[in-house]
Design goal:
Blueprint (H helix, E strand, L loop, with lengths): L2 E7 L1 H4 L6 H8 L5 E7 L5 H6 L2 H5 L4 E5 L2 H8 L1 H11 L7 H18 L3 E5 L11 H20 L2 E3 L1 H12 L11 H12 L4 H8 L12 H18 L10
Parallel strand pairs: 1-2, 1-3, 3-4, 4-5
Helix pairs in contact: 2-12, 5-6, 5-8, 7-8
Length: 246
């Protein structure tokens, strides 16, 4: 019997602009009877994910992981970011931690109420690499909101933000703030596709420990996500190996 896993989220789940954690999971689970599908859309916020749950529910998954919030965090940093995100993703209002909490709660409520899936919520990954900067401080508030939703709804909480923050602190990574614009995201993709540089090589050239462009993951960042999801699936959703008869 095949176990169906759906990973729902944004561009980090789609895996188009960095190392994809869903691809890593597919490699780890090869031959184990686990089918994993990425339901990630570039630029999505919690509002957008809530509006596109129908096909996820229709898959009748055995487990769903929800990794959403990077764009919510980014859109909350400045009024300009919020306006840009509202136009591009047709949002009714700029992202806020409270709005994120409400919409994430609605996402989880529907997944729990309309499927038999085990559900896990991940806190958003760290944006930038400055633990004392505004992006990380905002990320802490959104991570706390994600934890509160998971606890209130009785689903698993996977502390990605906390794990990445701890790694950056303990590894002594150079503090690099999140840039104001999107230049690094575009040039990262161009370097990868035109110059054939790996995302890890791009990370190294920029002095980044977990991302290739301050947002999308390199191999180390993607492996952290895969580790959390793998542990959840092994414990909560995947069938135990058959025991030999004696």
């Amino acid at each position: 019997m095949t176990t169906r896993i759906v990973c729902a989220g944004d561009s980090n789940t789609r895996g188009e602009y960095g190392v994809g954690y869903v691809g890593l999971l597919g490699e780890r689970w090869h031959g184990r009877g686990i089918d994993v599908v990425a339901e990630g859309v570039n630029g999505d916020t919690s509002h957008n994910l809530l509006r596109r749950l129908d096909p996820i529910v229709a898959r009748r998954p055995d487990a769903v992981t929800v990794l959403i919030g990077s764009n919510d965090v980014w859109g909350s940093l400045t009024e300009a970011n919020g306006r840009r995100l509202m136009r591009r993703k047709e949002l009714p209002e700029p992202p806020t931690p409270d709005g994120y909490r409400d919409r994430l709660g609605a996402i989880v409520a529907r997944l729990v109420g309309e499927t038999d899936a085990r559900v896990a919520v991940l806190s958003p990954p760290v944006l930038g690499q400055d633990l004392d900067g505004p992006a990380v401080r905002a990320g802490e508030r959104f991570a706390e909101a994600a934890r509160e939703v998971a606890e209130a709804r009785g689903v698993a909480y996977l502390p990605l933000f906390e794990r990445q923050s701890r790694y950056l602190r303990e590894s002594g990574a150079r503090p690099v703030p999140l840039p104001d614009g999107l230049r690094e995201r575009y040039t990262s993709v161009l370097q990868h596709r035109l110059l054939r540089r790996s995302y890890d090589a791009i990370s190294d050239r920029r002095g980044l420990a977990l991302t290739t462009d301050f947002v999308h993951q390199n191999s180390r960042g993607a492996a952290m996500i895969a580790d959390l999801v793998d542990g959840f699936v092994r414990q909560e959703a995947a069938p135990s190996p058959a025991q030999p008869e004696v």
